[in-house]
Amino acid sequence: MGTERYAKSLEQLARAEKLIPLGSQTYSKSRKTFPPGLAPLYATKAQGSHIWDVDGNEYVDLMSALASVNLGYADPEINAAVAAQLENGTTISLTHPIEADVAQLIVDLVPSAEMVRFGKNGSDATTAAIRIARGFTGRDHVVTCGYHGWQDWYIGVFPSRNLGVPEAYSALIHPVPFNDLHAMEAELKANPTAAIMLEPMTTTWPAEGYLEGVRELATKYGAVLVFDEMVTGFRFANGGAQEYFGVTPDLSTFGKGVANGYPLSAIVGKAELMKVLETAFFSGTFGGELLSLTAAKVVLERIKRTDVISRIAEKGASLRDRVQAEIDKGGVQDLLTLPGHPAWVFTVWNPDEPTITEIKQLFMQEMSRNGVLMIASHNVMAAHTDADLDAVVAAYAAVLPIVRDAADKGDAAARLDAEVSDMGQRVR
């Protein structure tokens, strides 16, 4: 089949790279993630749970816009509400009452939320949380556990990502492993810590008592506990992972699914902490942009009145179990595992396999060829139908024997439709 399947994607990449670094606004949508010639790079349309690339190929979308779409693309109710708001302005010169409407919905749903401020992307919210914690405690150091965005305060600790970040930032950030309370306490003892910021879950389930232990450590050492719920929020449960696991942080950050893909994030938490933002500066022209807030109001009202979030988890669990059956049937248990919460299942490849990089590329090539768009996880949304899930399982059934054979013969690279180079390192 070769690269002709993606001829227009390759043409667009050549054009875009003359104008845009990497040819994309988002690292995880760029050629660093999607190998040119093996997978699509550019799309023209997304509706429901499907996406169409510039070459006209249609896919069941398991990326779900990097987990930011939890209901479905072009949701009719959201579209209608946003279209109505368009007639009355997008960004206007005064605060609109909908800001308080959406804030109230978040307060109603999220255990830690007493007050709310909005941003436009996840890094806005996590950076605001750190500024609040530092302002409230008078301390500078931060303990982290997970991925928290691109801003200097955090990304400086990653050698592959810290170009342009002053070294002084790295000295203030102390990453610790998940599920390791001893490592966390060692950092809290060593440094006057303003905040503990962690993702309450990614690939690994929290060990029994772990999140409760983090809560206790934060209180013991006077640090502000922040849950980064960019993905887990409005996906694991109505009130996020903090509701799901029954542990309430001091501050929380949300984004992605809060507005079903519209650009909106939120920093929420205890009133005494949030009021730091009356003095500490956190402000943006588009924080009150009305189309995203309108979308969020529809999303949060639906979450509040229906069982949509639990149904997403049910779909995710069904897909995981069916794919696991194909993994078992194909004998690739040594190569591929499926950890994570049912609504955010990861495809984790064995790093000890000598040709695992080429195998992962082969897997992406073949899944794309079989009409499934994915990177490294199943980001299930409400719009995924039974037929969609059937199609994904069928794709796995077709692809895993190819992967098994390539691993056994050590010839995955020879099966690729294009030469792959300069792939980037992922941050999770």
**What CATH first level of the largest domain would be assigned?**
Alpha Beta
**How helical, in percent, are the residues?**
25-40%
CATH superfamily of the largest domain: Type I PLP-dependent aspartate aminotransferase-like (Major domain)
Strand order in the largest sheet: 4-10-9-8-7-5-6
Write structural notes for this entry.
The protein has a seven-stranded mixed beta sheet, sandwiched between helices. Strands 1-2-3-15 form a four-stranded mixed beta sheet. A three-stranded antiparallel beta sheet has the order 12-13-16, covered by helices on one side. With 428 residues, the chain is of the alpha/beta class. It folds into two domains: 180 residues, Aspartate Aminotransferase, domain 1, CATH 3.90.1150; 198 residues, Aspartate Aminotransferase, domain 2. The radius of gyration is 22 Å and the shape is globular. The mean pLDDT is 94. Helix content is 39%, strand content 14%. The chain is built from 15 helices and 16 strands. It starts with 6 loop residues before the first helix and ends in a 19-residue tail after the last helix.
Topology:
Blueprint: H1 7-16, E1 43-47, E2 50-53, E3 58-61, H2 64-67, H3 76-86, H4 98-109, E4 115-119, H5 122-137, E5 141-145, H6 152-155, H7 167-170, E6 173-175, H8 181-190, E7 193-198, H9 210-221, E8 224-228, H10 241-245, E9 251-254, E10 265-269, H11 271-274, H12 290-305, H13 308-330, E11 336-337, E12 340-341, E13 344-346, E14 348-349, H14 356-369, E15 372-373, E16 377-378, H15 386-409
Parallel strand pairs: 3-15, 5-6, 5-7, 7-8, 8-9
Antiparallel strand pairs: 1-2, 2-3, 4-10, 9-10, 11-14, 12-13, 13-16
Helix pairs in contact: 3-12, 4-12, 8-9, 13-15, 14-15
